[in-house]
Input
Amino acid sequence: MWGRLQAMVVKELWAILRDPRARIILIVPPIVQLFVFGFATTLEVKNFDVGIYDRDNGAASQEFIQRLAGSPNVGRIVSVHSPAEAREAIDGRAVIAVLTFEQGFSGNVAAHRPAVIGALYDGRRSNAAQIVAGYLDRIVADTGASLAATAHLQPQDGRSALEVSHWFNPNLDYMWFTMPGLLVIISMVSALAVTAQTVSRERELGTFDQLMVSPLRVHEILVGKMIPPLLVGIVNSTLYLIIIPNLFGVPLTGSLPLFYIALILYMCALIGVGMLVSALSMTQQQAFLGSFLVMVPLILLSGYASPVDNMPGWLQVVAEGNPAKHFLIISEGVFLKAMPAVEILANTWPLAAIAAVTLTASSLLFRSRME
Amino acid sequence: MSATTFSWQRFRAMLVKESLQILRDPSTFLIAFVLPMILLFLFGYAISLDPTHIRIGIALEDSGAPALSLANSFERSRWFQVTGRRSVATLEDELTAGRIRGIVVIPADFSRRFRTTGEVAQIQVITDGALPNTAAFVAGYAEGVRASWQAAQLPQAALPVALAHRYWFNPELASRYFLIPGSIAIVMTMIGSLLTALVVAREWERGTMEAIMATPIGMPEFLATKVLPYFLLGLGSMALCTLLAIFLFGVPFRGSALGITALAAAFLVPSLGQGLLVSAVTKNQFVASQVALLSAFLPAMMLSGFLFEISSMPRWIQALSYVVPARYLIPPLQSVFLAGDLWGMFARNIAVLLGFGAVFFTIAIAATRRRIA
Amino acid sequence: MDAPLACARAVTKRFAAAGPPALDAVDIEIAPGRMTGLVGPDGAGKTTLIRLLTGLLVPDRGTVEVGGVPATAQDRSVIGYMPQRFGLYEDLSVIENLSLYADLRGLPPAERPENFRRLLGFTDLERFRTRLAGRLSGGMKQKLGLACALVRTPKLLLLDEPGVGVDPISRRELWKMVRDLAGEGIGVLWSTAYLDEAERCDTVFLLNGGRLLHAGPPAELTQRMDGRVFRVYAGGTGRREVLERALNLSEVSDGTIQGASLRLVTRTQGAAPTVDALQVPAGTRIAPTAPRFEDAFVDILGGGPPGTSTLAQRYRTIPQSGEPAIIASGLTRRFGDFTAASNISFSVGRGQIFGLLGPNGAGKSTTFKMLCGLLTPTSGNGQVAGFDLRSGRAECRQSLGYMAQKFSLYGDLSVRQNLNFYAGIYGLAGGVQREAIGRVVDIFHLQSYLDTNSGTMPLGFKQRLALACAVMHQPPVLFLDEPTSGVDPIVRREFWTHINGLVERGVTVLVTTHFMDEAEYCDRIGLIYRAEQIAAGTPDELKQAAAAQAGLKDPTLEDAFIALIEESDRKREAA
Output
């Protein structure tokens, strides 16, 4: 039994290490993805361009415009001279927002009458627009406060009344979120691709019959098939655990042994999913498309693309069945939050449960489709 | 290739063959119809970048009336769902576990300072920075709640200047309004590049290419018959997605059928060209699928401005995004839904797309020729 | 002779600048109205030559002309080409494939009904018009491939190994169809690994390593063997040992088993091997017999391998157990309401070769798969090496060696890794494993390939590796599923030398094959047709039965095969 299993495992390892195509898929995409997506997938809004329609041209509006131009997040300030031009600038995506200072704005401010700045946003990019609105609010509030202070209307000492502290990520560096998330996503993609392909490939090449007439038992074949994706997942993740803190400066604060336990269970759950796809496909093409079809919802429901909290309640329940959702919490926790063991375990047991279900289901399906 | 003249008979026969294969191949069905449904469904329901009812905790260390009134304001806010008032220590654990995304601390001397000095005492907001987007929203919304409470309590201290926000095209600020049109671009990328790459690679792999090449059919004719059915499939899938978007997900459609068709048709040109190129360069379906995924699908998803603002990316990635055809489709596609037919913008993007198409097709034809020799 | 329809003059083609050329200064001519054969061992350059004639490849040097113009410039509709894999779309039906090629070749619509009727009639595919090509049997696919190549009658028909993996009946039908076409004035180039087909061609070109070794009527080559071929009526039991001794004699260049007798080829004319040299009982009849093209083919390539199998020499002796090594009793398998194998029963004694023969799709693969545990029988049972198929599955698997139809080892793994893997899964470990691997490496001369990916080796070495993997654990029973499909005669001889040797050590062999000369090596044959076993017996018994039924005189095994199947059809129709 051990001899057979060992031979199976060694063969599976060689199979992924020697096949140049498999090597490319295991090495190139994960690294490219980490770098490109690490930088690209940010929901921050920087360097945005703002249009100004200044019908006031007074001291207060100039003050605002200068403050705006001095803000690090604002890219260019574009002057527009009519509502039509403002519209055109937004339509053509030249700017994400246009601020309108009506005539008499500066006068109102000086007289301490309520003064309103009109802000128009490009709702086609509503998320970015909202974030920009937040920035503009802050700039306006700061400017307004200092104008008020000069008018001795508010005895503030410049301190904001709201003291905000962002835990785990004090500067809200988006990459601190992206990197632990990419670890979860990319290790999923490689694990699923390797698993789904491993059985269908043997079927297509005809080597599967060779395995079936040998004394190998079904569970030995399955265990053998689990090894490559498991190993790929562990190697990729380890690589990331080294690269992410050292190259991208994301803190790694939590318990590594617990992380690895969760990682192995996460991989097992995904391998079960991949095996299901593999058992259902007759060709490599079907296996590839099948795993792709499974991968998309797993990624989108993981909390990486958008927080699970934002989903409707019933979908949050569905997301509980997604191993990536649980492992993402663990990954973020271990990187940023120094998550205590109790919390890690609370997210680990669902992984174990999902793994048990998918592996059992796949081995049952596997047996029934053996012929 | 021998010099052959175009024959309508051959052309029609290949089209019929290709269409029959499309109809009989389950993977075509999966990519052209099941995948769009899944994507639309997920972007319609699952993906939302608009946090409402963010779970926060309030640590109320003061029991005075102003403090209670402020806490009430937080509880009433549509942005927050306050999970109860507890001690900071308990809430900190909850925050670490990810069960709440923020803590509002109203300090012990809040009411005293408010009453005695008339000064607004500081409150503290702690956010879960592990989710930076949500954290930024928590901070922003908390400031909003505090400011409006203050304005109500101390009208004389209100800031003289305010922004009046108006969102054009999408006043409800529903992120699905821009995500769903974007996902149509993803679906068309899958059909144009991935599916085409797979089917042409399959002809090489199964040896039918050799038999076809030994018949009088010419290379441009062959490629045209490969491309045309997938072009129509792409348009069909786009139409399906558009109808679902409008009638199932209620995305406004302010442009015209002509506008969206023109955009989709222009986009399919580079997309199909890329698919042909991938299949001509790679030798088999497996590699073709991986290359198509990496060179077409992922860039369309990540580098097109679909989910992430291109202007926020580092310069070198911005430069990279200029060669992603989807980059030129997504803005006009979002416009045709939300803003209407902006023909000036459409024309610019269509021209770029067709330019890419010409380049891809030229290389694809040359590469296919070389493979036969 | 007419002016050639197509010709290649001094054609050289290289694929890698450094390596040897795939074709080296080859001249051939294809005349209209004649069957031109193209033969040669694996890697001889046959497919390259055909692709040059289709115009798909351009020669490095020399000229290739079809109908007086360069092949690349010729109107493609005058060339009918059937590639090795037929070029059919598996997800299109018979009629859809045919229509596609009709349009691609520009068949005028008015001629379509008549042409289709003729082609479907003559390929007997009328009944299957709407069946998907992927669901046709090998023989039917081949006929459809031919029909597609012929849909608009070409002037030149190029067929690349149309007979690989196809049963004798279909092959014979195909031959007849093409022969008739040649009669109408078409030029035909028929590339083949079946030398009986080559023998029937009008002209044969023999390629080896890219060079042309012979051009002319096959009889020219065969004639050189006159007086060098003898039959030795050695009798059933000791024939394998006699063959081994004979092949080890320096004067014998080649030999095969034919039922109970041997067929030997000597190096010199007229010198019949003596009773003494062969160590057969005095009075054993040794008589000259007519040479065949295959004799000449093997001879021109340097003769067959020696008679002693080094594999068998170093194989354990399988102990006598007194009971049959393989038993099939009433094996039946149904897929839905389709019965693929019905009530198949036979038993094979220790140290015997049992051959399963039958047309494509008749049920022999199903029977084979049930016995090696790939399919569970719907009813009936069997035994392998004394273990029950149902209750002793694991033990069965441990006691058998399996060699699949097509090369199915891990092509991306090196030879060493494949050997390690197969040794490991059959439970060989440590020193035993090292010893077993060392042994097969030595026997099959795999030393220089140990670190090569097995998928990139020449076909002959793949074949050796596959056999090596199947026998490393020295199983008492071997299952061979069309083990030599597409392999040239020289490699096949080496293969059968090993099999014969192993059988002498007590190994029991179950084999399926479409090569009737290989079936002659079997001790007994079961003929499966339409899911049933319609005949069983020794090769000679089957020949006699066919002779009696069909009134044939001295039939070959192929004649017998066909006669028995036709007889079964007649009975079925009568019933």
